[in-house]
């Protein structure tokens, strides 16, 4: 437990963090990588270049300061981040290193305003927060290694099949090189791959949703190739994955993730944008295998039919799931799309699209896709009276505040 004096000091720094939070986290990463370049393999270099990682850490530090007297409220976030830490190989020994450079960055940026009293208070608070992560991650490491077919660290898998799903998305079927059994997973979870792209000095870790049902001899991930667009750089690792062939091997951490749909009878609405449909493909395949009778509305948004992955497979699933209502929305349909009528609405997912599909406002809602899409869907759902606690979304980059940004827009 934190002392009352410590809590008061931390709360007093909230206005300072609002102003200087991102400068502190930028300086933190500079210090961290200068002292420990080996940790570069844990962080997505594109997110670093775009400032997303720095902004996400600033949000996390700010949230810790705001909720410092009731840290139990952030435990669900600790579990979500802890799952990613486990898949990335974050260890207890890393936390003192992070603490040292975070406090050092506060001193560097705030200078004389970073008094010994303030730094001491933050050191005490960081110790408690770090221990919460260490405790959660210990359980996750043990569960991953001790489950049937589980393993510790990384395991070598061979690409045994590669299927083109759209102009930009390919599915990769992965089987273990040792030919032993593999761990089961829950629909909505992901694999973490360690990949060493040519021209990069260190390996990179990436999360990819599992897109098929569990309990098979393989894992399937479906990866979008992120090409350069205007001023947006392309995805270094996604393009590298798309250069791989059947027979190539990759290093994989055991399945992880908290984007899991509870098994109950509540009506369910799934909203996906682009490659965000992959975790829902896993859920739908599993539901079809189990002959589920749950009421499900699934609305998928894509630019057009050329980039709409799993169009045929999802139609087959809709035929097997008699209680599923599926709708497809194309932002800018091609002439072929217009001719073949392979979509249900043009433009964006709107309240009218949701109502026509028969969604239940009192049910559960899961959203996956690009951040602007998730923000727009969250805003739409809350306007329609859906309770915030019934809305779940999935991040693969650094998590920013979808709720705050949606409300602000």
From TrEMBL:
Which residues of this UniProt protein bind heme b? 85
From the Swiss-Prot or TrEMBL record, give the protein name: Flavohemoprotein
Q: What is known of its domains?
A: Consists of two distinct domains; an N-terminal heme-containing oxygen-binding domain and a C-terminal reductase domain with binding sites for FAD and NAD(P)H.
Describe the function of this protein. Answer: Is involved in NO detoxification in an aerobic process, termed nitric oxide dioxygenase (NOD) reaction that utilizes O(2) and NAD(P)H to convert NO to nitrate, which protects the bacterium from various noxious nitrogen compounds. Therefore, plays a central role in the inducible response to nitrosative stress.
- List site positions: Involved in heme-bound ligand stabilization and O-O bond activation: 29
Active site per the UniProt annotation:
95, 137
E.C. number(s) listed in UniProt: 1.14.12.17
Q: Which SUPFAM superfamilies match?
A: Ferredoxin reductase-like, C-terminal NADP-linked domain (SSF52343), Globin-like (SSF46458), Riboflavin synthase domain-like (SSF63380)
User: Which Pfam families does its entry note?
Assistant: FAD_binding_6, Globin, NAD_binding_1
Gene Ontology molecular-function annotations: FAD binding; heme binding; metal ion binding; nitric oxide dioxygenase NAD(P)H activity; oxygen binding; oxygen carrier activity
Database matches in InterPro entries:
Cbr1-like_FAD-bd_dom (IPR008333), FAD-bd_FR_type (IPR017927), FNR_nucleotide-bd (IPR039261), Globin (IPR000971), Globin-like_sf (IPR009050), Globin/Proto (IPR012292), Hmp (IPR023950), OxRdtase_FAD/NAD-bd (IPR001433)
For this UniProt record, the keywords arranged alphabetically read as follows:
Detoxification, Dioxygenase, FAD, Flavoprotein, Heme, Iron, Metal-binding, NAD, NADP, Oxidoreductase, Oxygen transport, Transport
Its encoding gene is what? hmp
Annotated source species: Ferroacidibacillus organovorans
UniProt-annotated binding residues for FAD: 190, 395-398
Q: Where is this site: Influences the redox potential of the prosthetic heme and FAD groups?
A: 84, 394
Instruction: Write down the required cofactor(s).
Output: FAD; heme b
Where the record annotates domain FAD-binding FR-type, the positions are 152-262
């Amino acid at each position: 437990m934190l002392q009352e004096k410590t809590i008061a000091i931390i709360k007093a720094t909230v206005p300072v963090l609002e102003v200087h939070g991102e400068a502190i986290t930028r300086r933190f990463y500079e210090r961290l990588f200068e002292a420990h370049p080996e940790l570069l393999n844990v962080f997505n270099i594109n997110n670093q270049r775009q400032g997303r990682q720095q902004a996400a850490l600033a949000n996390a530090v700010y949230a810790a300061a705001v909720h410092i007297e009731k840290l139990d409220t952030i435990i669900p976030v600790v579990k979500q981040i802890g799952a990613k830490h486990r898949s990335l190989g974050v260890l207890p020994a890393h936390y003192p290193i992070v603490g040292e450079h975070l406090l050092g960055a506060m001193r560097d940026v705030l200078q004389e305003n970073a008094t010994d009293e303030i730094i001491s208070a933050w050191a005490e608070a960081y110790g408690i927060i770090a221990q919460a992560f260490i405790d959660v991650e210990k359980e996750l490491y043990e569960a991953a290694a001790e489950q049937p077919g589980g393993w510790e660290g990384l395991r070598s898998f061979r690409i045994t099949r590669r299927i083109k799903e759209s102009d930009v998305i390919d599915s990769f079927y992965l089987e273990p090189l040792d030919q032993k059994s593999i761990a089961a997973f829950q629909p909505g979870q992901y694999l973490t791959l360690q990949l060493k792209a040519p021209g990069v000095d260190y390996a990179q870790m990436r999360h990819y949703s599992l897109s098929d049902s569990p309990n098979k001899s393989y894992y399937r991930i479906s990866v979008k190739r992120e090409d350069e667009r205007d001023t947006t750089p392309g995805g270094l690792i996604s393009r590298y994955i798309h250069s791989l062939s059947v027979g190539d091997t990759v290093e994989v951490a055991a399945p992880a993730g908290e984007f899991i749909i509870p098994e109950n009878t509540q009506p369910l609405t799934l909203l996906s944008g682009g490659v965000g449909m992959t975790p829902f493909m896993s859920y739908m395949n599993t539901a079809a295998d189990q002959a589920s009778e749950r009421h499900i509305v699934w609305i998928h948004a894509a630019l057009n039919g050329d980039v709409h992955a799993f169009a045929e497979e999802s139609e087959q699933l809709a035929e097997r799931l008699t209680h599923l209502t599926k709708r497809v929305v194309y932002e800018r349909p091609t002439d072929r799309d217009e001719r073949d009528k392979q979509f249900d609405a043009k433009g964006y997912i709107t309240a009218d699209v949701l109502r026509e599909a028969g969604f239940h406002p009192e049910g559960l809602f899961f959203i996956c896709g690009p951040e602007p899409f998730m923000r727009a869907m969250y805003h739409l759902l809350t306007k329609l009276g859906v309770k915030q606690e019934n809305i779940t979304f999935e991040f693969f980059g650094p998590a920013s505040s979808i709720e705050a940004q949606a409300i602000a827009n």
